[in-house]
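In the design runs reported in the main text, the only information available to the sequence generator was the tokenized backbone. The following block is the verbatim input for one such run; it is reproduced so that readers can re-run the procedure and compare outputs position by position.
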């Protein structure tokens, strides 16, 4: 406001951003915006890493009238959509190796963890897309989920070979350091570690840490004041907190255990556990450098290359660690060794290109975890957002990065130049290809022809499961009940269109009840009882042709919708309407008087059926979730 800028209203900005497409998969408009921001990057800022992770969502399907598509189902963007409710969002983000810039670039919806085969295609697409806009992807970072491990196995990523070539560029792959620290702690809780040395083997036990905590908490002046029950007696959610693991593997806990051993409060073998804690703390400090100068020497990035030889020492240390109760090497040890080797080889390559320090904290997934936290905080701290909420939050957070996109660690003040740059970025995003051309690029999993769709039992069966509704359809009176609802909905749709258009021709489709016009028993009962005054100008009965039409559409709606979705595309209403318009009964009805309003009435009826089916599916999902929770409660009793 100090600049005297005439800014648009908040509602106006909301309408602008609402028109900007942000769908699962790669978004070339988004990448074009990043490419424009790159114009002010220096050469070192072009080196980046790509990271990906999944976050939970609420299973909830919605019909989006604005985009004419279903949201909340499995959607892998260019690799197709599947008619199953999604409960996970896979997000990709890029950030500078030694710079503070970061951008989310794509997201996908899946049912559970994304399969390794699909994940491989998506990761390759994202890496090549980032390379195509001029950035140099030097590193890939992910956690140690079983799908990521399957991806690394497919690419033969090992500590001896931690890289892969994409577009003639070498990309190293590692695991997220904070996740590895949590895995070390979680395995230590359940197993005894054995550290082999030249003279003897040391045993590391979680019971040693628990015993130290119980003795330390009895006195007022504690040696490790930050330790609490949350650190030692972990609940399910506590196991996900990195802070609780990092504070256990700290110099304070090491010093406390070592002191009690010297004072003979604890036995001598507790010192082996203390030495292990100190080693993990030292390794975590080296992999968590965030500034050139730090009070703790191990976290000074200015001396990174002077201490790079320690990466080999740390590698040898984990070579000496084993778990006797396991028949093979634990996954987290392989992940730690891969991370140490990957960072070492990356550091050597960057040193040859002129780097003299590396902020190793940037080589983690912290930026992505912060993104998830911001996405949940939108809309009243929603820890379990729906697919639609997540998509809109992703769009909001991306445009927030356009307002403030720092480079080289320097922060731009709000100036006329930076504001103008933001406006240009917005204009470039809005001026690129329109939504229809973007939709045409989206592929689907199954795209059979019209002839094949009739016999495509697998596709129809999966779609029928998606569109299955209440058990009332299985009862004997289900057809009569559906017929009553169809007649009522059809009359309501005609009434709505005639009220908006004041078309006298369309009013002839309705027949008002009089004493001479009495419907046959069992027909129009719902319309009868819905009316407050039977002889007022309210709901009415349908003429013969309209009655036959709406009952036909209602009876074939599920099958026609399945065929439209199996044939490909995301435009749900348009696809269903096009297929109905090819039916002889519908063709004849549309050729009668006032065809434009008739098409609107049919479209209104189909949209109402869409909302009804989506609601029924969500009710089924909630019921299944309730049954699952009941079974879990019974098992826990």
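Verbatim output:
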């Amino acid at each position: 406001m100090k600049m005297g800028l005439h800014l648009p209203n908040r509602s106006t900005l909301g309408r602008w951003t609402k028109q900007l497409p942000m769908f699962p998969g790669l978004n070339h408009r988004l990448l074009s915006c990043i490419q424009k921001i790159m114009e002010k990057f220096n050469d070192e800022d072009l080196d980046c890493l790509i990271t990906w992770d999944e976050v939970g969502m609420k299973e909830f399907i919605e019909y989006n009238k604005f985009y004419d598509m279903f949201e909340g189902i499995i959607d892998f963007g260019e690799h197709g959509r599947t008619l199953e409710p999604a409960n996970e969002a896979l997000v990709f983000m890029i950030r500078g190796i030694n710079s503070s810039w970061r951008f989310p670039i794509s997201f996908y919806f899946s049912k559970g963890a994304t399969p390794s085969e699909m994940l491989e295609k998506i990761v390759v697409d994202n890496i090549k897309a980032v390379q195509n806009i001029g950035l140099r992807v030097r590193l890939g970072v992910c956690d140690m989920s079983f799908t990521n491990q399957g991806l690394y196995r497919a690419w033969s990523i090992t500590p001896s070979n931690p890289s892969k070539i994409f577009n003639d560029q070498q990309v190293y792959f590692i695991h997220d350091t904070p996740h590895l620290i949590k895995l070390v702690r979680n395995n230590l809780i359940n197993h005894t570690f054995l550290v082999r040395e030249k003279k003897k083997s040391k045993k590391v036990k979680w019971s040693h840490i628990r015993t130290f905590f119980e003795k330390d908490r009895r006195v007022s002046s504690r040696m490790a004041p930050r330790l609490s029950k949350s650190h030692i007696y972990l609940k399910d959610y506590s196991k996900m907190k990195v802070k609780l693991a990092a504070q256990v593997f700290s110099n304070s806990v090491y010093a406390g255990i070592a002191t009690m051993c010297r004072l003979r409060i604890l036995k001598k073998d507790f010192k082996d556990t203390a030495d292990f804690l100190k080693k993990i703390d030292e390794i975590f400090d080296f992999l968590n450098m965030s500034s050139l100068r730090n009070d703790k020497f191990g976290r000074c990035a200015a001396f990174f290359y002077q201490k790079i030889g320690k990466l080999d020492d740390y590698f040898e240390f984990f070579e000496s660690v084993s778990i006797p109760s396991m028949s093979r090497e634990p996954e987290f040890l392989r992940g730690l060794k891969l991370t140490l080797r990957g960072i070492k080889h990356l550091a050597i390559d960057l040193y040859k290109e002129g780097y003299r320090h590396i902020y190793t904290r940037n080589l983690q997934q912290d930026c992505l975890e912060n993104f998830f936290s911001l996405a949940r905080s939108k809309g009243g701290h929603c820890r379990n957002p729906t697919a639609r909420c997540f998509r809109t939050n992703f769009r909001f957070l991306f445009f927030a990065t356009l307002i403030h996109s720092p480079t080289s660690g320097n922060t731009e003040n709000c100036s006329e130049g930076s504001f103008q740059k933001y406006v240009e970025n917005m204009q470039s995003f809005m001026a690129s290809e329109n939504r229809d051309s973007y939709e045409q690029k989206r592929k689907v999993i199954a795209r059979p022809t019209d002839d094949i769709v009739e016999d495509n039992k697998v596709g129809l069966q999966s779609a029928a499961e998606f569109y299955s509704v209440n058990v009332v359809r299985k009862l004997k009176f289900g057809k009569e009940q559906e017929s009553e609802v169809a007649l009522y909905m059809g009359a309501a749709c005609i009434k709505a269109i005639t009220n908006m258009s004041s078309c006298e021709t369309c009013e002839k489709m309705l027949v008002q009840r009089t004493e001479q016009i009495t419907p046959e028993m069992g027909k129009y009962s719902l319309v009868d009882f819905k009316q407050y005054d039977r002889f007022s100008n309210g709901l009415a009965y349908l003429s013969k042709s309209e009655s036959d039409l709406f009952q036909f559409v209602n009876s074939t709606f599920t099958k026609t919708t399945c065929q439209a979705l199996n044939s490909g595309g995301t435009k749900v209403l348009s696809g269903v309407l096009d297929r109905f318009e090819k039916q002889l009964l519908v063709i004849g009805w549309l050729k009668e008087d006032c065809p434009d309003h008739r098409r609107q009435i049919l479209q209104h009826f189909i949209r109402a059926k869409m909302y009804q089916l989506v609601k029924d599916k969500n009710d089924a999902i909630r019921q299944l979730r309730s049954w699952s929770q009941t079974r879990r409660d019974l098992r826990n009793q």
